[in-house]
Amino acid sequence: MPTGRTSKTLRQMHRNNAFYLAMAPFVVIFIIFSVFPVLFSFYLGFNQWDGFSEPRFVGFDNYLRALNDPIFQKALWNTLYLWFWSTVVTVTLALGLAVLVNEYVAFGKNWFRMVFLLPLLVAPAIAAIILRVFFTSSGGLVNLFVGSVTGTPSYFDWLGSQEWIKPLVALLVVWRWTGWYMIIFMAGLQSIPRDIYEAARMEGVGRWAIFSRITVPLLMPSIAFAVITATLGGLQMFDEPYVLTQGQGGTNNSTTTIGMYLYATAFTQFNFGLGSAVSWYIFAAVVVLTLSYRLINQKVREGAAA
Amino acid sequence: MRKLLANRERRIDFAITVALFLLSLLFVLPLYWTTVFATRSLQEVFSFPPPLWYGDNIVQNYQNIANVFPPFRPIINSLIVAVPKTIGLVLVSALAGYGLSRYGRAPGHKFLLAMTFATLFFPPTLALIPFFLQMSAFGWLNTFWPLIIPAMASGFGVVWMYTYIGSTIPKELYEAAEMDGAKGLSTFFFVVLPIIRPGLAALAVWTLISTWNDFQLPLVVLAEGSRFTVPLALTMLSTTHYSDMPAVMLATLMGLVPVFVLFALLSRQFIAGLTSGAVK
Hints:
The complex is a heterodimer of chains A (306) and B (280). Chain A is mostly helical and 306 residues long. Chain A is built from 15 helices and 2 strands. Chain A has helices spanning 4-15, 17-45, 61-68, 70-103, 109-115, 118-121, 124-135, 141-150, 165-190, 194-202, 207-218, 220-235, 239-244, 258-267, 272-305; strands spanning 47-48, 56-57. In chain A, a hairpin with a 7-residue loop joins β1 and β2 (56-57). The relative contact order of chain B is 0.14. Chain B is mostly helical and 280 residues long. At the A-B interface, α1, α2, α4, α5 and α6 of A face α1, α4, α5, α6 and α11 of B.
């Protein structure tokens, strides 16, 4: 015999059965293919397993083993480097372009809105293939160009070089994503009331001061959104370095990312436990960075309000 | 004096426009060169200065690809994956978005809404390894199923439809439908779906393009070259036949064309889809 409260809830649920019907496809697929794998990944992280023999419980061994692996340390550093530089350059460039196109461009606004977006249509893997063609050591366009300028043919191995490979991966990210963030910032700029600018101009405030004191603070929500999405993508970066280095991570692992390290441990060494532990490190990094942006963003807003 | 100032400002604007135009060329130049190289012979590509305009070697390049694999196979594979997944994802998302948007007081609503938003911050990498093992247990490895069915539950899709439906459908419409005796999900199929078509289109374009570009999941799941989707097949071609650069560029171009056609037809929906997350 249900108590008064549960029967009320049941009645409510019955009245809303269309709600549960509507949610069912999403929830069922989500539980089977996302919730269950994530829980299983948690289990795997504490076990040693090659997919064939019995899984063996090893506690935090996988987590410690990753931390002590020099290649993981290098992958961690590479990922942070790529995430930082690609995010800083992409977001700054996109912000500058959005403001310039919005305020200063005299003609052809539609061209600018479209053209920077085109690279986003190109798959990261395909973009990496195109970049390879430009930078291969023999016959690559860049070497042809360098050779013609200096007068001696150049065979510099850009993709094999430890110094150049990381900036090249970052360049790929900048090339693909700048247009996207530019569109987001332009949408954000539309929501800033024009009379704030008019008033500032009447007071004789210069263009740079208007940009740094009015535009940037008011665009803070869009900027935070851009930085958070760039971080989510950057910490999982896989396609670009994988294709650019043909799955090898470059000379001396100079552009092996955590995502590539995870892929290699799981799918070439069949060490599923270690790979799962690494995926939880990625998750932890996402949580830490996302929460710290939120805090910073909140502080900035409070500062602006005070 | 004022006129002089206006002229000076106009000249600055003009200079900035020209500078931005030159910068924008950098963003399309690689794509332009890809199309040029696809029509040139190997010698022409390696000569200096490199060709800036189209040549007449495209048929030969096409035959060079055809000698390695059927050139349209990866495109067909990508369509087999992307079209059903997109239809499923859009429908599943619209249903869930409708449920969350209309039934705010149903028990469990708060939890489901919070869960959906939380998924946006879950890196897909987290589930990659167990997902592979799960697909292996299902016997789904080296088939297209892992790329179609699981991807239909998209947190982004649900959030997008939830905000879209919430902002386009007035509550009075639901009341009117109820008065007319609409039961269960009939309101959704006959009243809501026709109204939210632009929102569905935006989500569909975004899903099609990102599915087309997907690399890591197909790499993990597909083993046989004849099943490879476009980015996988191109990566394989470019590593094994890298010396035939014009053929690689032509194949790359073929893989890009469907996405660019789609973009040309539906660019407005695409951009609406892109900015949706940022505006809300």
